[in-house]
Amino acid sequence: MNTKKKLLLSTLAALMLGLTGCQSSITVNPDNKQSVVVPKSPNKIVVMNYGALDTLDALGKGSIVIGTPLSVLPSYLEQYKSTRITDTGNMKEPNIDAIKQAKPQLIIIDGRQASRTEQLSKIAPVINLSVDAKNYLESTKNHINVLANITGTEEKARNLIQSLDVKVTNAQAVAKASHKKAIVAIHNDGKMILINGSSSAALIHDVLKVKRAVPLAPKPTNGKPKPTFIDNSYISRVKPDIIYVVDRSKAIGQSAMKNSYFNPALLAKSKTEVIYLTPDLWYLSGGGAESLDRQIDEVINALK
User: Fold this and answer.
1) Total tally of structural domains belonging to the chain
2) What is the pLDDT of residues 127-158, one digit of tens each?
3) 30 is in which domain, residue-wise?
4) Is 1's pLDDT higher than 80?
5) Do 84 and 124 belong to one domain?
6) Residue 30: inside a domain, yes or no?
7) Is residue 56, in this structure, part of any structural domain at all?
8) Domain boundary at 158, 188, 210, which?
9) pLDDT per position as a tens digit, 17-75
């Protein structure tokens, strides 16, 4: 083989490798915030975001997950408590060494791990799939599509999104027909606080259209807003039909809210019903295909 022919074959081989390399990656831009080049059809992913984990599960791609935080794994994802899954630390403090040893091709995080993005990016590409509370439903659907594009499951994603759209529309009809007005509160260490502007409240009030018992207050121009504590006095004054409770303490393995927190006679007089949302679903997860489906059921069942 002469030199010119060798050179031509080498050039063709390089071009083929280049094309293969191009086809093995994809650029994603979750919520139009930052474009990231990630592997196409990876088979080793670390997922620090439970909403993303349940979406991968719904897309039929749970087998590519090799690591996730196991200490507070939501009960609906218990199938991932497996010897094949690496425990990657808690949600606020990823175990960097464990993630390195797992050798993932992609790492998926949410806002809890955002401060570790640079550190994690030295291991593998990182995408942040934090749900956008201002655009909860669109953000969730965008994340489903992002994960589908990465894993080549676009048709399944279309079916999932279509089902969610139908479910949301039906839920909105129930909420519209109901006279009930609600507040959303979080329990933490024996205290109950109104979370009217949270992602949970955004889902309940803005997406599902459950009527607000109190209006959403404007954000202060300086500093953080003062917390509004929910107690017997608050209930007697506001008289919400429903209190949706997210029990943070129970979600992270601490003491749950006591049944005696509210005076039963007062609740009866105010015609207020306390709905205890599934703690680990609402505090630790959300913004995923399966979690959103479950959350809609919990909210709407209280209106029927």
Assistant:
1) 2
2) 999 999 999 999 999 999 999 999 999 999 99
3) 23-158
4) no
5) yes
6) yes
7) yes
8) 158
9) 344 444 589 999 888 888 999 999 999 999 999 999 999 999 999 999 999 999 999 99
Take residue 190 and report the two structure tokens written for it.
């024996």
Asked if 294 contacts 281 with a C-beta cutoff of 8 angstroms, the reply is: yes
Which amino acid would we find at residue 190? Answer: G
Question: What percent of the chain is modeled with pLDDT above 90?
Answer: 84
Q: Do residues 29 and 86 both lie within one domain?
A: yes
Does the residue 1 lie in any domain? no
- Asked if the structure places residue 10 within a domain, the reply is no
Q: Copy the structure tokens of residue 117.
A: 């993005």
